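Lab notebook, bench 4. The sequencing result for the construct came back, and we need a structural model before the next group meeting so we can plan mutations. Quick request posted to the team channel:

Model the 3D structure of this chain.
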Amino acid sequence: MTAGSAQGGPPGSHPRHALAPLLNSPVRLSVVAALAPVERAEFAVVRDLVEVTDSALSKQVSTLEAAGWVAVTKGRAGRRARTWLALTGEGRSVYGRHLAALRAIAAGNGRSPDSGPGPGA
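Done. Here's the predicted structure in token form:
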């Protein structure tokens, strides 16, 4: 019996297959979640919200930026240098799919969030 056939669905239909491996890191997931409801956020605000050091946030943001999920913009506010972070369109999509997969797993329905309603729906 395969994992997919245990529920009668095709192989790979379990919602865990829709999880984004990069978001398995609690810090990266927290950064993306902090950026999701806003257009952009200042680096220091995200750092304080996520409760990490500058270097820890910088490392995680670099990973998300390399994946194309976070955009980093540097500029000035008055005389002070500032760094802003924003989710890209792809980052928002990946985060949405990741959340949908987590909800499906938590609901125990064993179906991918994109596979439609389960039996009896």
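The chain has a mean pLDDT of 86.
Will bring this to the meeting.
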